[in-house]
Amino acid sequence: MRSHGNNTDLGPFFAKFRNCTGLMELDLSGMGLGGRLPGSIDHPNLKMLEMQDNHIFEHIPPEISNLSNIRMLSLWSNFLNGTIAVEFSLLLRLESLFLSCNLFNIRIPSTLGKLPHLGLLDLSNNSFNGEIPASLGDLILLQSLFLNNNLLSGTIPLELFKCSNLYMLDLSHNKLAGRIPPELIEMSEIRGFINVSHNFLEGPLPIELSKLERIVEIDLSSNNFSGNIFPQISSCMTVKMINFSHNSLEGQLPESLGDLKNLESLVISSNNIAGNVPMSLSKINLTFLNLSFNNFEGKIPSGGVFDSATYMSFLGNPHLCGVKSSRPSCPQKKHWFRSCTFWVIFTIVRAVSLLLPALCCVNGIRHIKLMVSSRKNGRSRNPPTPEIMHNFPRITHKELSNATGGFNDQNVVGTGLGSGPSDLSLIQRVRICSDIAEGMACLHHHSPVRVIHHDLKPSNVLLQDDMTALVSDFGIARLVRTVGAGNGCEAIGNMGNSTANMLIGSVGYIPPEYGFGSSASIQGDVYSFGVIVLEMNHYHGRVDKVVDSSLIRASLEQPPEVKRMWEVAIVELIELGILCTQETPSTRPTMLDAANDLDRLKQYLNGDTATAFHSSLGIPSSIGGN
């Protein structure tokens, strides 16, 4: 499609578009459209308008109300900002509104609560601020509400829970505080998920969660919740994922969790939960379990998920024992005390106590005689002190050139990061990964014209004398312009097609989506970076080869507090690599996220231990704290 002004003047198009009265659906997504939405936007019968993945900027005009029959309006992944006109409330037939991944930096308009048929509202990945308007509770037909990844503050309004038909609720990654209202029980029909993670919510876990009998996912992680995990949680019979990590939960883990027959993932890391690990968890179909950094004690059960979980699921529980813990063997209780045995042992101990002084005297006399004899005869037998070499040979450049045949490639011992990660200390590995992430974040997020490297691998990373890492070799890099607004919502517009539709990169570092014809994106570089991170730690996806053995040996030689810091860093690096190499590009973090996470980890290892380490990516790694 081509419009006036190289697709930046949409006025003439929409002026003629209104005459197509028989048109009911219009899809202009990913067309490279720019400019503003014109005031001439008007159509009496249009029911669906899709204009996502474009360059449209500024505000949505009041004339949007002229689309009086519109059912679905999709404007996500543009550069829209400014206000949302009150005329929006005139779209009385609107059922789905997508405004995510834009640049809105305003309060959520209360007029959105006047759309009587609205069933889906997606305002995620913007900078909406202020409180959630109570008027959203008037959307009685609302089924899906996505307000995540904004700057929303205040408490969760009680009125919101009047939306009794709500299927999915995502309020994560905001600044919400206070408690979850008990009115949550009014949402008993919720069947999808509730996600309020990464906020400042507090108080005990709301027992009203147990009334959500049809819910599939519950994520309350990275908040300030306290108290116990109540046994009534077993009433959520359809739940598949529970994440209560990074809170201040206490008490014991209830055995009733074993009644959740559909539970597949349970993450309760970084809390203060104590007691034994429930045996009942071995009887259900759990495929992922993370109980790390708590106060569990006793023996790790066997069977079910406990046979497939790695030791990382139990890190930071010093009182746990078993093959998956820091104490492989558990102390055995001895039941040998009987009356007959007791008297036999008592008799032996009594006899030894009488004979021991005499034996000590005899042995002492013999020792004194030997000392006197050795002084007379052995004073001249001390071993000679080894000679210390003070002068080391200096080799000139000419000698090196002659010895290597003019630095011939056939004489190269190693390339890229040297002879291998085993030569690097843990802090060096973290610093190198951090340098690479910062360089790629600059290319992806801070450059006026973004750059896709396309061939990120160890041999394209140069190390300076001070071990600073630099990304090099931009031979097949591509310049791109962004279509979206960040937060992983980018679409890419080409500025040159020399490498378009080609499978480029190096084997082992090419993201899987390129093999299926997907266009290039910055998430492809994220995948390559993840492979490098895993290589830096020798991760092989096997329990017996989780990390480089040199790191394990070095960790065991450290004091307990340093050893625990190293454990966190190793787990953090591996899980960051796994996150970056996920099969679906949209689930990978951005290089900016990775750079920020590694920078905090680097500061932590350098001695900034005033607070516990928390990953910005939701990775359950922590030291001493919540």
Comma- or semicolon-separated keywords:
alpha/beta, membrane, Protein kinase domain-containing protein, flat, 10 helices, disordered C terminus, 23% helix, 14% strand, Transferase(Phosphotransferase), domain 1
List the helices and strands and how they pair.
Layout: H1 4-7, H2 11-17, E1 25-27, E2 48-50, E3 57-60, E4 72-74, E5 79-84, E6 96-98, E7 120-122, E8 129-130, E9 144-146, E10 151-152, E11 168-170, E12 177-178, E13 193-195, E14 200-204, E15 217-219, E16 224-227, E17 241-243, E18 248-249, E19 265-267, E20 274-275, E21 288-290, E22 295-299, H3 305-308, E23 319-321, H4 339-377, H5 397-403, H6 426-446, E24 450-452, E25 461-463, E26 469-471, E27 478-482, E28 492-494, H7 522-536, H8 549-556, H9 560-580, H10 591-605
Parallel strand pairs: 1-2, 2-4, 3-5, 4-6, 6-7, 7-9, 8-10, 9-11, 11-13, 12-14, 13-15, 14-16, 15-17, 16-18, 17-19, 19-21, 20-22, 22-23
Antiparallel strand pairs: 24-27, 25-26, 27-28
Main location: membrane
Keywords: Leucine-rich repeat, Membrane, Receptor, Repeat, Signal, Transmembrane, Transmembrane helix
Domain Protein kinase: 291-605
Description:
With 626 residues, the chain is α/β, with parallel strands linked by helices. The protein has a domain at 421-605: Transferase(Phosphotransferase), domain 1. It contains ten helices and 28 strands. The chain has helices at residues 4-7, 11-17, 305-308, 339-377, 397-403, 426-446, 522-536, 549-556, 560-580, 591-605; strands at residues 25-27, 48-50, 57-60, 72-74, 79-84, 96-98, 120-122, 129-130, 144-146, 151-152, 168-170, 177-178, 193-195, 200-204, 217-219, 224-227, 241-243, 248-249, 265-267, 274-275, 288-290, 295-299, 319-321, 450-452, 461-463, 469-471, 478-482, 492-494. The strands form seven sheets. The protein has a twelve-stranded parallel sheet with strand order 1-2-4-6-7-9-11-13-15-17-19-21, with no helix packed on it. Strands 12-14-16-18 form a four-stranded parallel sheet, with no helix packed on it. It has a three-stranded parallel sheet with strand order 20-22-23, with no helix packed on it. A hairpin with a 5-residue loop joins strand 25 and strand 26. The chain starts with a helix and ends in a 21-residue tail after the last helix.
